[in-house]
Amino acid sequence: MRKLVIYISSGVLLVAVLALGGAYWYHTKKAPHKPAPLTLAELSKLQVNLPQVMTNTRDGHLVQATFTIQTLNQQTYKDVTAGQAQILDIINTSIHGENGSEFLSQHGLENFKLLVLGQIRKLLPVKDEISQIDVVNIIEQ
C-alpha cells in the first residue's frame, strides 16, 4: 500500500512539473522574428525594369508596354535579371493569348498582371519573392 502511495505521489509530482515547465515555456517563448518592411529606397533598388515589348494580341491589336518587377531580396533580383529573356517570352506569349480589349479595362489589366506574375513565379526557386509586376506604360491599338 505504501508503494502505491509513493507511485501515485511521484506521478502527480511529475505531471505537475511537466505542466509548470510547459506553461513557463509557452509564456516565455519568443515570437518568430519578422523582418522590418523595406523602405521605398530599398524597394527601388530591387526593381527590375524590363525593356519595352511590342506584340500583337490574339485578335490582331497591337500592344506596346513596359513592365517593372518588384523583387523582395537581392537573390531574387539577380534571378529575375538573369531570367529576363524567359520573362519577356512569358509576357509576349501572354499578350498573344489575350484580346486587345483586355488591356483597355483596369480589371482586364489586373488579371493580365496576375497571370504573368504567376508564370514568372514558376521560374523562380522561391515562389513568393516577387511582390508585384507594374505596368509602367501601355498602348493598345
TrEMBL record:
Keywords attached to this Swiss-Prot or TrEMBL record, sorted alphabetically, are: Membrane, Transmembrane, Transmembrane helix
The UniProt transmembrane annotation reads 6-26
Q: What is this protein called?
A: Flagellar protein FliL
Identify the species of origin: Alicyclobacillus ferrooxydans
What are the top taxonomic ranks of the organism?
A: Bacteria, Bacillati, Bacillota, Bacilli, Bacillales
